[in-house]
Amino acid sequence: MADKLGLVENFLSCHVCSETFRDPVSLSCNHSFCSSCLQKFWEQAKNKNCPICKRKSSKDEPCMNFALKELADSFAKRHSESSPETEKEKEEEKEEVVCDIHPDIPYWYCEDEDRAVCPVCEFSLHQSHKVVPVEEAVSDLKEQLKSDLKSLQDKRNKYKQVEETYNEMREHMKKQLLSTERQIRAEFKKLQQFLKEEEESRLAALREEEEQKGRTISREMKMIEEQISSLSDSICAAEEELQKHSVPFLSSYKDTQSRARAQSSVSDPQLVSGALIDVAKHLGNLSFRVWEKMKEKVHFSPVILDPNTAKASLYLSDDLTSVRHGDTKQQLSDNPERNTKYHTVFGSEGFSSGKHSWEVEVGDHPVWLVGLVKESVDRKGKCFASPKCGIWCLKHHSGKYTNGDGQTVTVKKSLQRIRVQLDYDRGEVSFYDPEDMPIYTHRDTFTEKLFPHFSIGKAGDAKTSDIKICQTEI
């Protein structure tokens, strides 16, 4: 039997690839080959000869041998069915049979034991169990698995979204690094320039004093030298008189004596006080006096805006003390702290005790909101600007001023500047006009940290396009 199979296999094998024929074609010399094998052989040989007998083919495109193809296909199918892989598949299919005695009877599915059962052999064992047809159970379980699959896919999508946000945050951090580094260098350059100018000024003052004191000493020394020269002349004259004899001495000594006595009566020379450089004036408390002068050049802001909380349409100043509404949105990361629903930005520092106040210059801006907000406020979804949502504020819109409860607030004149005051321990948020007159006070009980809160709309035709925290000198 094996020999017969071998003969058949040789008869149905291509002499080029040695495999069972695939789409066999026959030449006029009656030799057969796979169509693709023959074409490939001809391309390599660059002729149209038979690979076996070398006889030239009379046709460029040999015809398909359908009888041989049917035999080859049938043989290949039977060979594959008898292969070890096919036998293994059959064994696996056999393992899935629940009951060898009743393989053709539709099975049941026992939900209590979570398995398929034979309704004939195992009927008595599952009378008290909940059983359903296998097809129904498979359908229900597949629906459950589909639901679980969708949950997994949704979960994966959420992780991918978070991953994407982290990538955006990483890119934004790089921009923050460059921008912040540039501004730090600029600020220190200003301070260094001030210190350099102050150093030159104080060195110039030192040199000026040294020149002034030097001129004083030179003047005094010149006077001393003149007196010494005059005294030396008088001494020489007196010494010459003493060398004369009696009669000549008596005739000339009076003039010499008068001159000597006149010069002797002149007061003794005195050193001028304060001739040295006043070192204490130049070095005493030098750092402190420079720092005091530096304070005149710098300002302090009671509130610093946090750019990580600003909506993408808001633009902050370099010193983070003013905000304006831009015409385009910036490419910012959607970090948890950022406000994405409203045109809002928070202060960088929160308060959980004590008294705090700051002033905000709103100018003629048509739409704004200033006040305080609790730390846990919803920054992504819809949230009303009211104490119920954790926002205590004063609003301006369409020429009207309202508080967080939506009540209209009466003011004497249009507000250009507002002072916000927080007394956390007493639970009070108050607003004052520039003349220190109270506008509105809200009393509440605070249970978490509060942050300065600023919202701003489009400026329109307003004279001022931003609102800013008023700075004070240190």
From TrEMBL:
The keyword Zinc-finger applies. InterPro entries: B30.2/SPRY, B30.2/SPRY_sf, Butyrophylin_SPRY, ConA-like_dom_sf, PRY, SPRY_dom, TRIM/RBCC, Znf-RING_euk. The keyword Metal-binding applies. GO terms for molecular function: zinc ion binding. Keywords: Coiled coil, Metal-binding, Zinc, Zinc-finger. Residues 135-172, 196-227 form a coiled coil. Pfam families: PRY (PF13765), SPRY (PF00622), zf-B_box (PF00643), zf-RING_UBOX (PF13445). Residues 76-95 are annotated as: Disordered. Residues 94-134 form the B box-type domain. Residues 283-474 form the B30.2/SPRY domain. Residues 14-54 form the RING-type domain. This is Nuclear factor 7, brain-like. The lineage of its organism: Eukaryota, Metazoa, Chordata, Craniata, Vertebrata.
